[in-house]
Amino acid sequence: MKEHFLNLGKQPIANKFLYEYEIENEYFYNLSVCINLDNFLVSLCNFVPPEQMFNNEYVYHSSNSITMKKHFADISKEIKAKINPKRILEIGSNDGVFIKNFDKNQTVCVEPCGNFAKITEEAGYTTYNEFATPTLFSKLKDSYGGFDIIFSANCMCHIQNIYSTFEGICSLLWNDGIFIMEDPSLLHTLQNNAYDQFYDEHAHIFSLIAISNIAKQFDLCVYDAEKLTVHGASNRIYISKTYKNKTERLQKLLQEELNFGITYFETYRKFAKNVEKSRIQLQELLKTLKGEHVVGYGATSKSTTIYNYCGIGPDLLPYIIDTTPDKQGKLSPGTHIPVIKYEENWWKNNKYAFLGAWNYLDEIKNKEGTFINNGGKFITHVPTVQII
Ligand code: TMP
Predict the structure, then answer these.
(1) Cα separation of 356 and 229, whole Å?
(2) 184 CB under 6 A from ligand 1?
(3) What's the whole-model pTM score?
(4) Using CA positions, which residue lies closest to atom 15 of ligand 1?
């Protein structure tokens, strides 16, 4: 049974940065969030058609961030050392930031966004430019038989029909095979009031409890998990085809979720109330700072939810600085704040920077010593609205 708990209002496609002439035809949908009380899966109540989000114009490059590059190099090294896989499938290979750490002959990539599929294909990696559907899974089964590692980072949460995907993964795993998935953590989202984790692409935000329940449904076994700091906070979940005892660290993480109340509807009701409070506080803070040269730092997909939910447009945030060339010179989705190119001396005109990219806080603090030393301050909304 699904129960609705959060309404974030009318929202555009979070990653669809646009030119002025495109405003007229901008796509909007109602962003609201539900929980399935049978397995505790938290999902958007209304999914956006995947083609609206994942197409040839998709802008999120995993390789753009130093943090993400190192993150994927580290896990690749670990997989090689511990498992030494013969055949690896990556679901959602983006620009190849993970798969490029492996031999071309061992790997198969799946990537629905044509612009990214082209990158791995041109680098010599077998790439299926398709959505992960039952049809694709049976095609992969026919061509390769199976895989000993299936890896998917920040992609399972994008897949609307999570059940058929688990079924497909189960069919493709060899008996000793392991599926490793990394996605934003529901526990962290709730604990930190990070409601901006909810946007069109995130069809689900997973708890370990929900994934364990879904895996069980397909005779798969969640046996290990670890907390990651990327994308705010994520879980890396290890799922095997044959039964394995739960590791101690997984047991601890599951207990943490239970203690927080992941399986109680009241927890979600409380979260929704805190989200509403956060909106009022952020609006008030930005209104107070009007005229004080506040800039947006990082035109993230997450910030689209914030700007649209809180009604923050160019009157409160005159522009956003960002390092991604595809976003520069465009307007932010929905509230149309100009996105400009990140320049070394951006801080000269700005006293405050609202952290759209709050999940990269450490990387940004390291980079922005001059801004900080010159009295510059960051503003964040997680876990509460504050100047830091
Ligand atoms: P995402 O959270 O949707 O992946 O978007 C991250 C955006 O933040 C991306 O467009 C790059 C931008 N960014 C900066 O502009 N400066 C930075 O230092 C970092 C870490 C990210």
Answers:
(1) 16
(2) no
(3) 0.94
(4) 322
Q: Is 191 in the pocket of ligand 1 (CB under 6 A)?
A: no
357 in contact with ligand 1, CB cutoff 6 A: yes
Number of H helices, E strands in the chain: 12, 17
| Closest ligand 1 atom, residue 15 Cα | 3
What residue type is assigned to position 384 of the chain? T
364 Cβ inside 6 Å of ligand 1: yes
Q: Which 3 state secondary structure label does DSSP give 361?
A: helix
Q: Mind giving me the DSSP string for 158-184? A: G-S-HHHHHHHHHHHEEEEEEEEEEEE
State the 10-residue block means of pLDDT for the chain, 388 residues long. Answer: 97 96 97 98 96 79 80 96 96 96 97 95 97 97 97 97 97 97 97 97 98 97 94 92 97 98 98 98 96 93 97 97 94 98 91 94 91 95 96
- The total of other beta-carbon atoms located within 10 Å of residue 56's CB is 12
Q: Residue 168 is encoded by which pair of tokens?
A: 């497909």
Instruction: Say if strands 41-44 and 28-36 run parallel, antiparallel, or are unpaired.
Output: antiparallel
**What is the structure's pLDDT at 148?**
96
What is residue 58's predicted lDDT score, i.e. its pLDDT? 74
Give pLDDT tens digits for 173-205: 999 999 999 999 999 999 999 999 999 999 999
DSSP 8-state secondary structure symbol assigned to residue 104 = G
Q: What's the pLDDT score for residue 35?
A: 98
Binding site membership of 305 for ligand 1 (Cβ less than 6 Å): no
**Could you identify the atom of ligand 1 that is nearest to the CA of residue 61?**
4
Beta bridge partners of 3: 35
Q: Compute, in angstroms, the gap from residue 82 CA to the centroid of ligand 1.
A: 32
HSE-up (13 A, CA, CB side) for residue 125: 30
H or E element in which residue 255 lies: helix 248-260
Task: Please indicate whether residue 94, judged by its CB atom, sits closer than 6 Å to ligand 1.
Answer: no
The protein residue with its alpha carbon nearest to ligand 1, atom 2, reads 300
Total residue length of the chain: 388
Amino acid letter, 69 = K
